[in-house]
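User: Hello, can you help with two protein structures?

Assistant: Certainly.
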Amino acid sequence: MAVRQDNPELLALRDRSVDVVTRADMMETFGALKRTVAVSGTAGKTTTTAMLAIIADAAGWRPSFIVGSNILGFGPGMAWTDSDWLIVEADESDASFLRFGAEAVIVNNIAPDHLDFWGSGEALEAGFDAFVTQAAGPKVVNVDDHGVAALQARIGKPPGLVTFGFAANADYRIEDYSAQGLTSKFRLRCGNTFVAEVALAVPGTHNAANAGAALVMAIQLGIAPSLAAQALGRFHGTARRFEQRGSARGVTFVDDYAHLPIKARAAVNAALLGGWSRVIAVFQPHRYSRTRALWRDFADAFTGVDLLVVTAIYAAGEPPMEGVSGRLVIDSVSAAHPEQRICYCESRTELVELLEQELRPGDLCLAMSAGDLTTLPDEMMSRPWARDET
């Protein structure tokens, strides 16, 4: 829960007998008013929702939408219009995605997370099963993902279910992917039929998959593939999703919301395709409970980077847990990849001093966090180091 029950503002509202509703309650109310398309998954749902909103807007739908971040070059992450349609990022963290009454759904991937709420991986999987099967309309799922493949094995192929992905057995296949710097492109086919060519202003195979999900859903909803592909070319990302924040001394700084193994791996893979001389990755673990549950799963999340720097945990309001620190992530990576160059920085001062010594022209500095590491690029670019070209 984002706000603790002992939050002073929440307590003050209750003392004044002000009705307080949860986000889930609000989303259920919104969903009842519109024909809802809900985008879910452990990773990629913010980007996919934003992509689909831009496509629907280009098609003249003027949809309402709720996205968990600002859409770069498009505006805030929420709009309420008189359209019949609502496109929404569907959050599984508290099972609220089951309350939207969504007509159409997307599932990008399923990986362990929010197990403090669900209690087990099996319960989380059952939640996704219900999310898909209760939708009366199109169900677009990523067959490349092991968790989604397992979902399909459990529920079969109910009416309206369509698969997409790089896999040869996908109903809609992503092919001929290529990347250059911060851009990428691919072709989409259905069987032997060419559907569309997409040029993206964002990098990474994960973004090609996100775009594939949005494009396939748009097609299922009756939007012309060529129009949808053209709209995707105008997508420039969302805040904190591989967001280029600037450069200094020949170093490019990128901020990414990656805080789970699946997200970190996607961000790193996108960075490695970008053509930089080196990739310096800085990772801030998020929450003690999440780190305790997932630290082993980070073993292969940073493979290929030239230097991995792990920081202290961003608590997000949680109390410390004995024996749980960012060093657990280092232990996991070191055990799997003993050749990996890794550093641990307990304080921001220590981190900044290390980066000033380490970074050189041609490098990418990739900051990954759901916490306050998002300010690192601006801090680095504002320091005297950034103006010292010697």
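That covers the first. Now for the second protein you mentioned:
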Amino acid sequence: MNTAASTPQTRDRLIAAMLDALRCRGYHGVGLSELLAAAGAPKGVLYHHFPGGKAELAVAAVQLAIDGMLVSLDRLFEKHADPAIALAAWMDGAQKQLRASEFERGCPLATIALESTPNDVAIRGALANGFSAIRAHLAGTLERQGVAAAIAGQIAVLILAAYEGALLQARVAGRTDAIRDTSAALIALINTQIGATK
């Protein structure tokens, strides 16, 4: 094996290639040869970094996507003390990214979740843990604003479900109305809940 092609940067390029594939075509829509070509990696390198093959690479891509969402949420909540404003900025960012890709690149998490089967244990586990982490992040922010823990948890589930669903609707429609309307409804709900605690 060419050790020069087996660097950490190669591993990162493989993950990035899988993440882009998940956004555009899904897990089953891309083959290993295409992933290697997109990553600029020779054959054999995939199994050096990911002995579990394509599924293990997909898990790494899912984790990267989740980490990115958590970092994005952290930055927005640090910038905006009001969680409704932070959420509006998050949804606005999703609209901009979708339009910038001409509605080609959706959420990689939703794509692979819809494709997964009960046999995809590792992939489903990574998704479940990731969604749980995002919900916990959202719920924690609401709790810090005085929303009761049980209600904050329920709203967090709704926010994430609405976010993913709005992205799917917007992508297939080729316009962002669904994201805009979902954002407005969620902001109104959050403001009502926070207002009720004051």
